Amino acid sequence: MSLILRIVILIGLITFSATGPAAPPPEKPVNSLQLLAHSQAMLSDLTLSSEQWRWLRKHNHLTIASWAPNVPPYFMNAGRYDYVGITADYLGLLASNLNIKLEIQQYADKKAAFEALENGEADLIAWASDEAYDAGFLLSKPYTNNTPAEVVNFNAWPLPEEGVRLAIDAAYPNPEAFIQRWPQAQLIPFISARHALEALAFHQIDIFIGDATATQYLINESNLSDLNIRRLRNNQSKGFSFAARPDNEQLIAIINQVLSAIPANINEDIMRRWNGGFMPILSERHLYFTSLEQKWIEDNPEIRVSVLRDSAPLSIYDSKKKLHGVTTDILKAIGLRTGLKFVIQPKDNLEEIITAVKSGHSDMVASLNLDSASHASLLTTRTWLFNSWVMVGRHPSLSLPATHRAMLLKGNAVDLSAEPELQKMRIVQADTLTEGLEAVVKGKADVMILPLINANFYISRLYADKLRIIKSLEIDPARFTMAVSASNYPLATILDKALLNIAPEDLQLTVRKWHSNANMPNDRQSEIQSAPSQALIGLAVVAAGMILTLLILLLRHRQRRQPAQQHLLDAIPVPLFITDLNGRLTSANRSFAEALNIDVNEHRGQNVQALMAEFGLYDGDRVKEGIAFWQTLLQTNALGYGYVGGWQDMRESLQTLKQLQQAKHSAEKASRVKTTFLASISHELRTPLSAIIGILELLLRRKQLNPGDRDSLHIAYDTAESLLMLVGDIIDVARIETERLVLRPERASIRPLIESVVTMMDGLARQKSLLFTCEIDADISGDVLVDPVRFKQILINILGNAVKFTVQGRIIFQALLEKEEASALNLVLTIQDSGPGIDAATQARLFKPFEQGDNQQSQQGSGLGLYICRTLINMMAGELTLDSQPGMGTEVTIRLRLPRMTPQPMPAVVAAAQAAPTTARRILVVDDHAASRHVLIQQLHYLGHEAIGAADGQQALSLLSAQLPDVVITDCNMPVMDGFALTHAIRRDHPDLIIWGATANKQQSVREACLNAGMNDCLFKPLTLQTLEKSLSTLPVTETPPCNIAWKFPPGLNTPLKRRHFLQLQLEMFDEALADIHEGRQHNRDLKSVLHKLRGGLLLLGADELIEACQQLEKQPDPEKLQQFEQQIVHLSRHLQLIYAGTTDLSSLPTAG
To answer: Where in this chain does the record put each Histidine kinase domain (predicted)?
Structure first.
């Protein structure tokens, strides 16, 4: 059979299969997914009824129905079986606060998922809109807005009045509402929003409509910088909610309670996380490794990484053969988190990379498509970049005959069967991306299939006028992962945990940075010059080109004027020469002769290249690096041609640049060392200061102190507090310098914030006999969006300076409204004092760190307050001005525009008499700092609780195995086993035990790390008695089951702690007696002495019924009555055990007498 006949038959078969009747596709199996939530905060405002808690205990395992394809960023599969996104974060909050287990089931499509919900296979759908409500399902309150957005291309021509090509997101719930907006539009269908947006970027459609959040995420991820997004107002949709069956009202009510209890800052963090962000710096979330993983890291500190040479911007090599790009940034981020050092092994193609990893010559691949890794049987991490496959073809200006060939990078496993256009082409594999693209440019192939990130980069920097992106392929996007061999599975889990520790918005920003900032390697050279070197050499070449143009014009003017020509050559400051067509020197200028230290007349006729090589300007057959060399053809006379050329020595400039870069790196390293030192010294200072403050507070609570001692203790207490504030200021300065200082705005009532600071400062002013005047506008009221801690910090600093530096006179504080505005509070705060004043020169440097005024007072500050205040006010988009003259006092004005919050109903006031009484608890304190541990135990004893201590996590586990406490309070940073590892160990056996973290690092990120590790809460040092009492009072108090045996405490046990000790002794006595009775019955021993001892304990309890039974058994033993008596003792013992465990208020139990 001839080749042509075979092709005809194959085309016929393909045509028949495409047009003829086809069997229905097999049903896609349901996949179980692993929930990966980035938000797991404990909601302090969550209150559920006892009926709702009972419902949750009965239904503690819920199934969530999801579907394919994903709807990023709401829900996505980061790995094969990972479920991440906005809905995952809210599901994580539900799971952690309701103590339930959630199972994610992924169905073939949205219809199948809702059918599973309707049939009872699933309990909940996490992403639903009004469409589900219209279908009869119950919806929760929305957890995020559903705001439609219109997207157009910046570079598009004006939209036509008719025939607008419109695409609407297939996942968008209400497409009909927008078709009316463009009635004449041509509706173009796409299977996903990702492909529609890429089509808009490639001018294949005119407008795209979709959800604003999802659209912004996809634009950021694919770096579609030409697209402009505009939000549309549409009141028809309320937002995205959870959906349940109509008979599941209780579940929806519970979810609504949780959603209402989520603070605004957590909602904002979730949305910010999935909508762009910051560089992948070292996360403050704790990264926990198992003992196996930790041992593997210690045994394998250096990891050999295979990286593709030709894959910009994922991997780019400079002239020093150093790797840059997205891959480098991610490896650096992983190195910071794990301590691993990565040794780069560049490879020419993917086949070399896969072979190296499988053979053990390399440990991992930094960037590989998930399908390619699976095809090679490699273990993979979660996906760190989703990117569409695109088809790249020639620019219309390059008209070449079709070859019906498509290029694909060798080793890339891509399913192209769904693209009919490619089925007619022969797929040819290229070793490198450049080889494939060059084949398209030269007409050896029609198109190349490659990821969008590579296509954008290469076309914009190398093939701008030769290639273009034709379309994006409607297939699953490329999923870039890291891959290791099957024998290196610990490395796979280590990399996976490190990637999970990098926030999604950080990964997005890294990709965007390398889209715009990196330089493309020259296709005629095998190395990439650094951007600064290119700039310098390029400048020299341009200058030389201008000189050359002038030279050619002048040389052609009159050849016979040789003296004038030589003068002209000598006037040019760079070396210049003229040769014949064979490269032999005919003429040169003075700079040429000086550079080579020769006489031009003596060397005329010699080869210029040989002369330059002799004087060290050539390295083999190439010009040395740093020499900008140029040469071009020149008509020397009417009949002859030659060459004119020259060079500029850039080596000294490049050396200077290198030294500057080294100095920059040294400065950056010094800054990092300083930041690390400050963070460490902060913890080392805060911990002992917290212990000092705690013990001073305990001493001040004693009633028998004489006034002199009390005054001394107050001075010591205030001094310790001041030192703690100074440490906080130093850390704030470090955060400002490293751009790590962040605001955490939340709903706050503005007037109480101001009044609390003013009240405190009024007391300080009275102590110095200063007149303090306060004026607050009556219209300053209501809730605003502000960081309350930082707002008070600003006021305390400014007012504190006024009090500190004013010896006599008055201080005036004014809080006024500048102008009325419904949406914002325009606040003007003015602080005037009659202090010594500040001259203009001092004012100019006061807002720099560690700067102070040149006053002669004994009181001096740290020089940090004003610098921190101005930084915070700038971050709040406000303004701080200072007006002062020596001897005339100082006036500081602060202007802030704070967004107003919608008023909320006033919460019901609960009478103090209804508050649950505090129950005495058994508390385990774990802290490696002996003083801190001792102080905390003493504070808990003072509050009426029993407390024991452990120096590290291992010792704590030993104490836990002996007797389970009610609460564990553990320091987060300890040797041997830290608080995070201790929590993981406790949670394996005691999932319901209350665990609180305690740390001197007062940052929200540390609190989040504690909650993510499984702790119930995080307490910040110093732990005051008020803080401990408030936290312990929130623990639940439940009723103990009634006991049918009457008993009561003996008289004199009037405190919970005394009663607890009494119960402990009684329980020990009961345990011994029951063991003796059991042993005596087995061996027929006399039990009179045992019963006599037991009766003494029963007399203390006043259990008359059991005392009488015990007496009868002493006189006349009866096996049946003895067994009944033993059961009664067991029942009473269990009842007392429940009371001892803290489930009942000890003060509410009866006392004899």
So the answer is: 680-900
Q: Distance between CA 679 and CA 999 in Å, rounded?
A: 13
**How many other β-carbons are positioned within 10 Å of the β-carbon of residue 776?**
17
Out of 91-100, 367-376, 1111-1120, least confident range: 1111-1120
pTM beyond 0.90: the answer is no
Instruction: Give the neighbor-by-neighbor strand order of the sheet with 946-950.
Output: 946-950, 922-926, 967-971, 994-999, 1017-1020
Q: Determine phi and psi for 953, rounding to 5 degrees.
A: -65, -40
634 neighbors 565 (Cβ within 8 angstroms) = no
* pLDDT over threshold 60, residue 688: yes
pLDDT in tens, 248-285: 999 999 999 999 888 877 887 788 777 644 334 444 45
Please, what is the average pLDDT of the chain? 78
Residue 532 pLDDT > 60? no
What are the residue ranges of helices labelled H in 701-749?
A: 707-737
Strand 405-409 with 447-451, pairing? parallel
Question: ∠ CA(922), CA(927), CA(931), 5° rounding?
Answer: 100
Q: Which single residue is written with the structure tokens 């290469």?
A: 458
For the stretch 600-631, pLDDT in tens is 888 888 888 888 887 777 766 667 777 777 77
Can you list the positions of beta strands (E) in 800-912? Answer: 810-817, 824-833, 879-885, 889-899
Amino acid at 396: P
CB distance 518 to 462 below 8 Å:
no
| Type of residue found at 69 | P
As given in the structure block, the two tokens for residue 884 are: 């002062």
SS3 string of 968-1037?
A: EEEECCCCCCCHHHHHHHHHHHCCCCEEEEEECCCCHHHHHHHHHHCCCEEEECCCCHHHHHHHHHCCCC
Quote the CA–CA distance of 386 and 379 in Å, as a whole number.
18
Q: Are 522 and 528 in contact (CB under 8 A)?
A: yes
Alpha carbon distances (Å) from 103 to 33, 54, 94, 383, 506: 7, 20, 12, 21, 28
Instruction: Express each pLDDT in 541-600 by its tens digit.
Output: 555 666 666 566 555 554 555 565 677 777 788 888 888 877 888 889 888 888 888 888
Peptide linkage before 313 cis (omega within 30 of 0):
yes
Nearest to 607 by CA among 572, 638, 645: 645
CA–CA dist 690, 1148 (Å, integer)? 35
Give the whole-angstrom CA distance, residue 1051 versus residue 1064: 17
Strands (E), 432-510: 447-451, 467-472, 478-484
pLDDT category, 357, cuts 50, 70, 90?
A: very high
All domains of the chain in start order, with CATH: 31-144+243-271 (3.40.190.10), 148-235 (3.40.190.10), 280-381+477-513 (3.40.190.10), 389-476 (3.40.190.10), 531-649 (3.30.450.20), 668-737 (1.10.287.130), 746-899 (3.30.565.10), 915-1031 (3.40.50.2300), 1056-1148 (no CATH)
Question: Model confidence at 531, in pLDDT bands (50, 70, 90)?
Answer: very low
Q: CA-CA distance, 1039 to 1031, in Å (whole number)?
A: 20
Helix (H) or strand (E) holding 643: strand 641-649
Torsion angle in degrees (nearest 10) through CA of 539, 543, 544, 548: 150
Q: What is the pLDDT of residue 249?
A: 92
Most distant CA pair in the chain, distance: 147
DSSP letter at 30?
P
Residue with tokens 């504080």: 813
Q: At what angle do helices 249-261 and 86-98 cross, to 10 degrees?
A: 100
Under 8 Å between Cβ of 512 and 454: no
Distances (CA, A) of 1038 to 920, 995, 1049, 1139, 1147: 13, 19, 20, 10, 14
